[in-house]
Amino acid sequence: MLRTQVIDFQGNKIFYMDFTNLKSVNEIVNVMNEAKSYIFKQPPSSVLALTNIEGMHFNNQVKDVFSEFVKQNKPYIKNSAVVGVDGLKQILYNGIMKLTGRDVKAFSTMSVAKSWLISGKKN
């Protein structure tokens, strides 16, 4: 089952990456590779990205692969939002943002995140 897809939200294309409930680094990296195959083919600063990490296992190894992924896709991203940052993930998430120089806005629900992404507001 593909965990990435382009979704239409109020006439706007949002690239959705679903990491929900993934427990192994290999599963997480597979989704990242799937995402890269789409993102890296897009024009610079054009992708509205939505990432869901609800229930995903997070440790230092996952932090490292996410940091690299976020750095690599930066040139292609117009705006980015994430859902599922809670508890201890918040600490690792903050670290990733500092390491990568990115400011991916965190939201509590998918619908709020999608609305924000298409609003044109920048991170």
Shape by Cα distribution: globular
User: What portion of residues is helical?
Assistant: 40-55%
Q: At the first level of CATH, what is the class?
A: Alpha Beta
Structure class: alpha/beta
Given the structure, what is the number of helices? 4
Which topology does CATH recognise? Transcription Regulator spoIIAA
Element-level helix/strand string: EEHEHEHEH
Would you report the number of β strands? 5
Look at the structure and give the mean pLDDT.
89
Strand content: 15-25%
For the largest beta-sheet, the strand count, sense and barrel status come to: 5 strands, mixed
Q: What is the number of domains?
A: 1
Query: Which stretches are low in confidence, meaning pLDDT under 50 for 5 or more residues running?
Result: none
What is the architecture at the second tier of CATH?
Answer: 2-Layer Sandwich
Give the strand order, joined by hyphens, for the main sheet: 1-2-3-4-5
Rg value: 13 Å
Distance between the termini: 30 Å
Task: Give me the secondary-structure topology.
Elements: E1 4-9, E2 12-18, H1 25-39, E3 47-52, H2 60-73, E4 77-83, H3 89-100, E5 105-107, H4 110-118
Parallel strand pairs: 2-3, 3-4, 4-5
Antiparallel strand pairs: 1-2
Helix pairs in contact: 1-2, 2-3
General description of the model:
This protein is of the alpha/beta class and 123 residues long. It has a single domain (4-118), classed as 2-Layer Sandwich (Transcription Regulator spoIIAA). The protein is 41% helix and 24% strand. The protein has helices spanning 25-39, 60-73, 89-100, 110-118, and strands at residues 4-9, 12-18, 47-52, 77-83, 105-107. It has a five-stranded mixed β-sheet with strand order 1-2-3-4-5. Strand 1 (4-9) and strand 2 (12-18) form a beta hairpin. Helix 2 (60-73) runs parallel beside helix 3 (89-100). The protein is globular and about 35 Å long. The protein starts with a strand and ends in a 5-residue tail after the last helix. The mean pLDDT is 89.
